[in-house]
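Quick question about two entries, pasted in order.
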Amino acid sequence: MIDFNTLREIAGAALISGALCAIFFVALSLRRWRTRCLALESSVAAMRREMETLASISLRTRRRVKRIEHEYSSVADRVDSLEQRGSAASFDQAIDSARRGTDPGSLTQQFGLSRVEADLVTRLHGSKRTA
């Protein structure tokens, strides 16, 4: 027959074996979680670098767009001016006015010519001044 001390020793050995198995599986699980956490941290760091790169590209693109908008903002005004000007008849009228002695500022206002165009019409067709 098995005495009480033997049963107690067997139960203790079984309990210790179970505890060691539990500790082994917990340690294994912990190692897997650490590996996964490291992989996620690495992934987050890579995503952060990509986001910084995208932010930099976005900033440069925004600056380029603003520069282009600034450089070509006068184009819409110029197109409006050309559309208001109408046909070549306004040039003919501006030439006639220049021949009658109208100054470039008035040609700009009356016929929608640019300052350079008004100066050119005045120089080419304006009344001849003698000194």
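Here is the second entry:
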Amino acid sequence: MTNNKKKIFITGSSSGIGLHLAKKLSLDKKNEIIINSRNLIKLTKAKKIISDCEYIKGDVSDYKIALKISKKIKKLDVLICNVGNSSSSFPGKERYQDWEKSFSDNFFSSVNIIKAFEKKLIKSKGLIICISSICGIEYVKGAPLTYSVSKAALNAFVRFYSKILGPKGARINAIAPGNILFKGSVWEKKIKKNRKKTLKIINDEVSTKKIGSPENVFNTVNYLISEKTNFINGSVFIIDGGQIRSL
């Protein structure tokens, strides 16, 4: 019997936004979810939370490991590149190692797994969604330069690589969230450290005066994997409550 389920692989999905995406997408029984992390303990805990999913351990910022992961999945319809890390040195204090690590975490973690699955995604006429950041669109005060530049590179990759994938039947888009609050997030730590100051930043910088949630990201992901969006390719969707100022 043919399996008509939509197979979805989500990198960096044992916690945070990735875990939320996996949980919500798994509720649709037409989806078959595979989660991923470098940490086996976190993966097994996530598996218990989601229940109806598979998992594959592996660091996708390593191209050889990304290739090994791709060989474990025969068919893939949707690839969600969610690995990312905003931790780095204060702007202007960067060392070479900071640049190297940030590009590994925020750029090559996506490019590696995309290249590893490229042929399978072309065969299935599949979709790639990269979780990026508004920091890659314009300068955000206080955001590490290494993080911002690596996310800018990812946004550019999505736009440019869509021209390569499109004629072959596959598509790639990105989502650029602003301030997203979840357990263990940077914004949770900021609120715990100084709630009044953090909320003032949100009120001053975000026109809707809100902090986003993983559900806001999920709503856009769910929309992009629907048939309604089959004419969208190479786009970067901003979800920031009206924070960025560039046109």
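Reply: Residues 38 and 59 are 5 Å apart (CA to CA). The chain has one domain: 6-180+211-239. Hope that helps.
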